[in-house]
Design goal:
The protein is mainly alpha-helical and about 300 residues long. Helix content is about 65%, strand content about 5%. It has two domains: about 220 residues, Rhomboid-like fold; about 35 residues. The longest helix has 27 residues.
């Protein structure tokens, strides 16, 4: 299998959201790197990558944003600095693996996208209404807001889960998340205030996402619905194959199309959601978490 075939397989395989997010970020980074070097060689440094970033990054001006609304999403996959993308993707892999294991691929993507949107929203509010930033031209890009949402989401979901950190040993991820938030707050008066503000927007979204999920409300449903719609457009119309058989199969098929679960399975899911409402997500057993995850995929 060729290199391009490997990329195509990764991007098209189902239940592979974490690898897909990592790969998209890497591919965009490589393309921008090639464009940057090409511009330098062809124009002798007269043009740089800013020319391209202006169409991918979120501008601070609302009128400019109206002409480039897609930047609210594209910015979350754009990096131009090696260490920027390295740290973002390491955190995405470590914390994203936890979210994916316990909540599944769809919740992971929802956290990333909603975190990016929340980060962009807080950045725009700050740069248009906070006096120290208002009127200052800026561009926002990078996966940090989406990644921070995943970090806070994982820490809210599994606060006592530990990572082994060099020189420190086992550290609970709730403390790692707290440090991430404090560092972002401390950096607001530094060289990258827009990015730090976006981190805080993503952090708030990650916390709220899990808290609402524990109460039985999935904030990611709009993201999942749009993803399903886009996936349906890309896959094209599906052929329906019908078989002559007993009429008893018809109601079951109709119920499946409406997204309903068989009654015993629905009652089991309701019991798990009630337990979350009473005692929180952490009170679930591993088996109950797996059943909740499987139900969320239907």
């Amino acid at each position: 299998m060729s290199f391009l075939d490997d990329i195509r397989a990764t991007l098209t395989r189902r239940d592979n959201a974490l690898s897909q997010l990592l790969l998209i970020n890497v591919l965009v980074f490589v393309v921008l790197l090639l464009i940057r070097v090409t511009l330098y060689l062809v124009t002798a440094g007269r043009l740089d990558i800013t020319l391209v970033l202006e169409w991918l990054a979120v501008p601070s001006g609302p009128w400019t944003l109206l002409t480039r609304p897609w930047t609210l999403l594209t910015y979350a996959f754009v990096h131009t600095d090696f260490f920027h993308i390295l740290f973002n993707l390491l955190n995405l892999y470590w914390f994203g693996s936890l979210v994916r294991e316990y909540l599944g691929d769809r919740k992971l993507v929802s956290l990333y996208i909603l975190g990016a949107l929340a980060g962009a929203a807080l950045y725009l509010l700050a740069y248009n209404f906070v006096p120290v930033f208002a009127g200052r031209p800026a561009m926002l890009y990078g996966a940090s807001a989406g990644v921070t949402a995943i970090i806070l989401g994982a820490a809210t979901l599994l606060p006592d889960y530990t990572f082994s950190i060099i020189f420190l040993g086992p550290v609970r991820i709730k403390y790692i998340a707290a440090v991430v938030v404090l560092v972002s707050i401390a950096g607001i008066d530094g060289g990258n205030p827009g990015g730090e503000i976006a981190h805080l927007g993503g952090a708030l979204l990650g916390f709220l996402f899990i808290k609402q999920l524990q109460r039985g409300r999935d904030l990611g449903r709009p993201v999942q619905a749009i993803a399903d719609w886009v996936g349906g457009l890309l896959s094209g119309p599906r052929l329906r194959v019908t078989h002559r058989g007993s009429a008893a199969a018809a109601p079951a098929a109709s119920g499946a199309r409406k997204g309903t679960l068989p009654k015993p399975e629905q009652e089991d899911l309701d019991a798990i959601l009630d337990k979350i409402s009473r005692s929180g997500y952490e009170s679930l057993s591993k088996d109950e978490k797996q059943r909740l995850f499987k139900a969320s995929q239907k």
